[in-house]
Design goal:
mainly alpha, globular, 18 helices
Length: about 425
């Protein structure tokens, strides 16, 4: 290991507080934060392969059951606006514990729901698990500053990235063997496990503020009027927007345009998750050395270049499933560089409002993502090529580049460079 790496590692270790596993008197172990954030990702996608089975069970249209994704994202976005201020005021620990308890109750409701309408209601209630994602990042920012936070968030989200790769595979196997409810039984068991782990290991990391919830909400203008916050928020929102568009359009592209079987679609579908895992690993190793702005810029450029590949080949008459999905791996890689660093940037603009920043930024990201997912599905209907989806993803990635360039320019202006 060279001197630069040793210096960065020494700096990171020097600012991290002492952590003792399963000791509530200390901040949580990183594995606890990974579990807390991964639960939300698992709830998002594990049951997707069984949506047709669920539509048949409830005797309803597939489109109705597909709303379990859109409604979940919408409630996620709304909840994030409140979770941040509440946790800044009352602490991360009680909010996380309460959220995981409610998630477990809602999951029970999903298992035993007699109608599609009740299932969708409980499915929306499951969105409370988003507290794990919001506050997992805020806890990291409570523990360590700046680039060190980006590095640690990289490790946290690197672990979380494994779930989208294996979740649909597990969900499909469980659905075929035991029925669609088996996916929610697994979610219930995992939720109770994460609840227990959080109760045993997560010590409070936030410094409680005074003035109550309304005072915290009144502090939002500090974020809303910060150009740097919106720069980082824009970079992460547009970067993730490319992925959400992919989430909404890739199943159609795989099955209807490339003629893939469901198992083949499931295999190719995890392409961006593989890239995301690698990108998060690179963020964990390089963010301290290179700085968050450069990492975000590199990530946005890689994503934009990746989604440009199928467009260029299509213009030359070359088109195939391996080419399309292989290129999307680069989009995942770029997002793996952009997301942890962009999140760290948002949380660093006003450190005393880290929870609020995480919630507001996450709400904007999910709201934009839900819109792009619906747009992708609408534009692809009846299309003979994947180009409508490619166009949406390319535009979103390019806007991410512009957002971080603006932020870098703003930083230089503030520094008098």
């Amino acid at each position: 290991m060279d001197k630069t790496k040793l210096a960065a590692l020494s700096n990171l270790m020097s600012v991290q507080p002492e952590v003792r596993y399963l000791n509530r008197a200390t901040p949580p172990h990183i594995s606890t934060l990974i579990a807390a954030t991964a639960l939300g990702a698992m709830s998002m996608n594990i049951f997707l392969p069984t949506l047709p089975q669920m539509a048949a069970y409830f005797d309803t249209d597939y489109a109705v059951m597909q709303r379990s994704v859109t409604l979940y994202l919408m409630v996620n976005a709304m909840l994030q606006l409140g979770i941040g201020p509440v946790s800044d005021r009352y602490g991360r620990r009680p909010v996380l514990l309460g959220s995981f308890m409610l998630f477990s109750v809602a999951t029970l409701g999903c298992i035993f729901a007699p109608t599609a309408e009740l299932f969708l209601a409980f499915r929306m209630a499951q969105a409370v698990v988003v507290a794990g994602l919001v506050l997992g990042r805020a806890v990291v920012r409570d523990m360590v500053p700046g680039a060190q936070a980006a590095s640690m968030i990289g490790y946290v989200t690197m672990g979380m990235a494994l779930v989208p790769m294996i979740g649909p595979v597990i969900g499909g196997l469980l659905g075929e063997t035991f029925g669609w409810q088996a996916n929610f039984v697994l979610l219930l068991a995992t939720g109770l496990l994460v609840l227990t782990l959080t109760w045993a290991d997560l010590g409070e990391t936030a410094q409680k503020t005074s003035g109550g919830f309304r005072a915290q909400v009144r502090a939002y203008p500090e974020l809303l009027t910060s150009r740097r916050f919106w720069g980082y928020c824009g970079a992460t929102t547009f970067a993730s927007g490319a992925f959400f568009a992919y989430l909404g359009g890739a199943p159609y592209v795989g099955s209807e345009i490339y003629g893939l079987t469901p198992s083949e679609v499931g295999f190719f579908f995890g392409a961006p998750a593989l890239g995301y895992f690698c990108g998060n690993f690179a963020s964990a190793r390089l963010s301290v050395r290179l700085g968050i702005n450069r990492m975000i810029l590199y990530g946005a450029l890689i994503s934009t270049a990746g989604i440009s590949i199928p467009l260029l080949f299509h213009l030359n008459g070359i088109d195939s499933a391996p080419l399309f999905f292989g290129s999307i791996t680069l989009v995942g890689l770029g997002n793996g560089l952009t997301m942890p660093n962009g999140t760290s940037g948002m949380l660093s603009v006003r450190p005393h409002l880290a929870g609020s920043a995480s919630g507001l930024g996450g709400a904007v990201m999910l709201a934009g993502g839900a819109g792009l997912a619906d747009l992708a599905g609408s534009l692809l209907t009846g299309s003979a090529t994947a180009m409508p989806l490619v166009a949406i993803m390319l535009t979103s990635s390019a806007l991410s580049v512009l957002a971080i360039l603006y932020t870098i320019r703003r930083d230089h202006a503030l520094a008098g460079v």
